[in-house]
Here is the input.
Amino acid sequence: MHDIRFIRDHPEQFTAAMQRRSVAVTADQILDIDRKRRALQSAIQDMQSRRNAASKHIGARKAKGEDADDLIAEVNRIKAELPELENEEMALAETLDGYLLELPNILDESVPDGVDEADNSLIRTVGTIPTFNFVPQDHVAIGEALGQMDFALGAKLAGARFVVLSGQLARLERALASFMLDTHTQQFGYLETLPPALVNSKTMTGTGQLPKFAEDLYKTDDKWLIPTAEVPLTNIVADDILEAARLPLRMTAYTQCFRSEAGSAGRDTRGMIRQHQFSKVELVSICHPDHAADELERMTNCAETILQSLELPYRVIKLCSGDTGFSAQQTYDIEVWLAGQDDGRGMYREISSCSNCGPFQARRMRARFRDGESGETRFVHTLNGSGLAVGRTLIAVLENGQQSDGSVVLPKALHSYMGTDRLQPMASN
Here is the structure.
């Protein structure tokens, strides 16, 4: 959410920032509502002062035995007029807040301008792309040949874009999540957390999913299924004032995530790339504003370390203005190489996004900290990233480790978690 004081003080800068986001709104449109609201606030305060003064004088006159009918009439008139003005002011406040809640975060100056993913900037490429003496298959063909990946059963139980994993593939999902959590907690100091998968509307609003993206979410009664553990983890500090010495707070969680994918109809309908239910290990940092830029680099490195440990080739992309998410100031996408995609020619696909949201979410959540030196209360800065998307990591392990005999060689980092060095077709177990 945006600070109205910033818009008042820097209207041209705000308008330019929204133009970078291709959002057709100007500071003048917002400030017109703000001016009307502030004028009403002044009028209400003036009327309240006059009412209080008149009430005081009524008592004084009556104490002297003097007539106070004119003052009583004025107080009654003010009492009759105030509710209408207060309701009008409240309506303008709701309109203004609704307006501000729908507007995306202001991008960092370092974010490159662009329209879509074609304009993103390549930062680095890491690892060696595997070679095969056969045409590599995608994870659907591999998983079904193993007899452990069943999309027909998923459709029977829940509908399209669901899958049932069994045997070694079910264990691989669990192994990957455990390996990621162990790495992030033991090597990087994140606090493992198990948050609710159902949250209320206030929590969804705090991180920016509501009100703008309601159609992408699943709702049950008065609760929402989380699209990512970023939502509950970040909101842990909502309405809090933290001591500066507690920062940074670093949390990680393995959860199921749920998305309707309303905005991606027709994309990635085959396999596990884009499902309605998927698992993810999430990273969230709550930090001092002065340290947010370094924290983003650190978080991205944490996610990269998982891929390096799993011997999976990848690249890091800095998203352009047209591709950066609603709540983010800037974002690094990590894309893993999937050997079986594009009819066996292979391609990079997103496996993690690491974002610095600045004070944007904190302002919506009223998450603050107290500066140790000045005692000033300021908004924290929030960051989030995937460390990693477990299903897509499973896909990468299958497609990059596939063998001509139908088995899949596992990365060494997973051997102790899996109790074996390779996956075999079910009939061979």
